[in-house]
Amino acid sequence: SKMRETRIRKTKTVCTYCGVGCSFEMWTVGRKILKVQPKPESPANGISTCVKGKFGWDFVNSPDRLTEPLIRDGDRFRMASWDEALDLIASRLREIKEKYGPDAIEFIASSKGTNEEAYLVQKLARQVFGTNNVDNSSRFCQAPATTGLWRTVGYGGDAGSISDLYVSDLILAVGTNTAESHPVIATRIKRAHKLNGQKIIVADLRMHEMARRADVFIHPRPGTDLVWINAVAKYIVDQGWQAREFIEKRVNFYDEYVKSLEPFTLEFAEKVSGVSADDIRKIATMIHEAKSMAVIWAMGVTQHQAGSDTSTALSNLLLLTGNYGRPGTGGYPLRGHNNVQGASDFGAMSAYLPGYQSVSDEKARKKIEEYWKCQIPDKPGYDNNTCLEAINSDRIRAMYVVGEELVETGSDSEYIRKQLEKLDFLVVEDMFLSETAKYADVVLPAAASVEKEGTFVNTERRIQRIYRVMEPLGNSRPDWQIIQDVANRLGAGWNYRHPSEIMQEVSKIAPIFAGVSYERLEGFGSLQWPVSDGGKDTPLLYTDRFNFPDGKARFYPLKYSPPLTVDQEFDLHLNNGRILEHFHEGNETYRSPGLKEKVPGTFVEVSPELAAERGLKDGDLVRITSKWGSIKVRVLVTDRVSGKELYMPMNSGGDSAVNNLTSRLMDPTAHTPAYKELPVKMEKIEGG
Ligand code: SF4
């Protein structure tokens, strides 16, 4: 009805930006969002949120929202009905499958969508098409951390809860700009630092807020973290400070690990990483003296060719010092998107079925095959990143992309654009005509998180419900309904009336979700996986056993391989990451005027010494060139960066986006792009 709505509704939802998973009540009248009100019972955040959760919602009512399906018509799109668009998708995908086989299609689930939607995307890939070509954007961020944890402790998630970080004696923060990327976690740590005598060690390239607050700040050479971490471990062993009893009872392969540490002397560490022997001794001593240490890390570690190995080195160090299984200990890879954890947990990964059951695990696969009445290949498929290379050999012919801005957030945008152009068929579900959607054959308008129900998993493995705050805009639809419609046009016969029924199915086939149900997640209720049949959840992992058959953790020996570094021509190192006000490419935050006004566009941070040497001042226009691309961008002179290191926010304005410069180098195990290994040159554009 057109009757004016005047009643204020208060609906519980969860932030769709970072992995902290702040929950709150959203106060609305119709589509108008009046305010966001966190509650004391909000499990991850209490009464805190950051500026994005509070003011970053205007995109929901942006005039740029897609409200009708679009079908490509030459160089343009024309509006189409849902029936026409879905029929076209079904017939083209069927054709491609019949002609080239099921592995010719790649499916990408959204890390911002719900768990239930990620689950349906991988079910569409595996059950309806018969391929493991499915993934989500964890490939671009924390997949190496997950690899490191799988190698050593067994679960690819944070060891404990966010609240446990408050009781840590010592926080080791490596390659994480926590105050801007995970603001509410930073708030907890800052409070513990001030009130509890907690100590903080920060290793990073930039003097950001956490670095300024740290008790010890080290600035290793880019890409050399593994070296100083292993040197700290070796020094601890040399002093006899290892946690003997813990290791004996709970960890395998100690001797192999100690042997692998031999090359990592203080001299070697100083030479390669630039971290002084004094600092390494100081860090080792602080770890030795701390009753509990937790390690937090993020993209500064993972987005290197050695991302998996460096993550592994951090987990090794925690095992060596007995720092797992108690409150305030353990590894915390801080998750990027609101649901990058959940999209992985629910099976949108090329090598894993829902609940991290490997596709090569015969028993798990058979059980799911029986449940779904289908056959699933026993080998991993192409992931988000390797699928792009597979387009070259015509092995990938079509892609089905749900809410992923591949062009701007993948590495080497120019390359990705070229690859998408080569596809026979591309489907994109999104709220906006993203850079990726511009290459699509069919674009389907997706509902926003506040327009649907479902669940997210935050960085501490916490499953939380979102409730419908308002109706989907125009003719947009929730992704889970769209995916079901596509599957059913291909004969799947799915009949989910509500996301809770999808969750019910997951609880039957994925043991870590055995006791998860919507009833148990009512309101601000939440559960941290693994959740037993009876509904007991796990705020703290590894209290009695690690997730391996014998219950013991594993030291994982490592070697050092050097990163791509600067040379005479490409003489500057360009780092990139988040800033507080924006999220990733900015498709949502740039459409939220409050945030856009604060930080309207991108810039490059230049150190005062480099600015002096090159005659640069704030606002000057420079050209930055790598081996892979070139951009123009404005200078911001700041002592957050030093020497010949530059920094750019990863969110962009199109042509000046940092991913026009990044390369196709990747971590050999996790296939995560080495976004942070980026030698560039910089020239001033006179009169620019
Ligand atoms: Fe919380 Fe992260 Fe959202 Fe900020 S962006 S409100 S810290 S979930």
In this entry the ligands are: iron/sulfur cluster
Q: Distance between the terminal alpha carbons, to the nearest Å?
A: 54 Å
What is the CATH C level class of the largest domain, in words?
A: Alpha Beta
Structural class: alpha/beta
Largest sheet: 7 strands, mixed
Helix count equals 23
Principal-axes shape call: globular
Percent range for helical residues?
Answer: 25-40%
Looking at CATH, which topology of the largest domain would you report? Rossmann fold
Mean pLDDT: 95
Strand order of the largest sheet: 5-4-18-17-16-6-7
What Rg, in angstroms, do the CA atoms define?
Answer: 24 Å
Second-tier CATH architecture of the largest domain: 3-Layer(aba) Sandwich
**How much of the residues is beta strand, in percent?**
15-25%
Q: So what's the oligomer here?
A: single chain
Unreliable stretches (pLDDT < 50, length at least 5) are none
Word description of this protein:
With 688 residues, the chain is of the alpha/beta class. The protein folds into four domains: 9-61, Single Sheet (N-terminal domain of TfIIb), CATH 2.20.25.90; 70-140 and 338-528, Rossmann fold (3-Layer(aba) Sandwich), CATH 3.40.50.740; 143-333, Dimethylsulfoxide Reductase, domain 2; 572-684, Barwin-like endoglucanases (Beta Barrel), CATH 2.40.40.20. It has 23 helices and 28 strands. A hairpin with a 4-residue loop joins strand 19 and strand 20. Helix 8 (225-238) packs across helix 12 and helix 8 (225-238) runs parallel beside helix 14. 58% of the residues are buried. The site of iron/sulfur cluster has 13 residues, from helix 1 and helix 6. The site of iron/sulfur cluster (SF4) has 13 residues, from helix 1 and helix 6.
